[in-house]
């Protein structure tokens, strides 16, 4: 893996990396990433090892996270999209497939609509076009408020109730090693304040008005029983993105884990979609 750095127009240093060879697959940043430590992750490493067999994987840490600058003044969805654009221009890639996982899906949708000539394939895994506070449900707004409080109070603490809630919400079918990794990664990836600021920006995302304008071939992959982004949000996107292919997976995890039978189906569908 080769790690490089670039600077955004507002002076934030962003870390990005290339791994593997072949046509470029760019993964949009999601909430918790760390370019180096993701390769030791029992969640991310199996996926990345699969992808680099047939693609050159381009990843980056978002502002406030991982190897990118933590001390940043502005954390908004517009900045997330602008940071993706900064990494693309710095990397020098002309065309690429774009993978958006979780809130990275909204970032990928926004970019693909405005740059249809550069994005060859769009893959949305566990994604959503509307954050928790934009879905029109009072209970999801209350959930967002509670989640922000627990993030600020319990981020990265081994014995915090946040740890159990986080695992139950994001990875209810994870093993002990994977749950421990989530807690460790919280400490490594970012500060409690940055985690909460990012989460607040994510919960206020709304790119639903862009869905009908997507012209890139799109694959939507989503766990049937997950709680972070209900499958109704995946169907919402699939119904509005022209000719989108929709695959539901037999899992309750936000991102299917490699020990699940559904994991092999997910990676096979992605490989077939990318050709």
Characterize the structure shown.
The protein is of the alpha/beta class and about 280 residues long. About 40% of the residues lie in helices and about 15% in strands. It has an 8-stranded mixed beta sheet with strand order 1-2-4-3-5-6-7-8, sandwiched between helices. Strand 1 and strand 2 form a beta hairpin. Helix 2 crosses helix 3 and helix 4 packs antiparallel against helix 7. The longest helix is centred in the middle third of the chain and has 17 residues.
- Which descriptor suits the 3D outline? globular
Strand order in the largest sheet: 1-2-4-3-5-6-7-8
Largest sheet: 8 strands, mixed
Q: Percent range for helical residues?
A: 40-55%
Supply the number of helical segments: 9
Task: Offer a few descriptive terms.
275 residues; alpha/beta; eight-stranded mixed sheet; 40% helix; 17% strand; globular
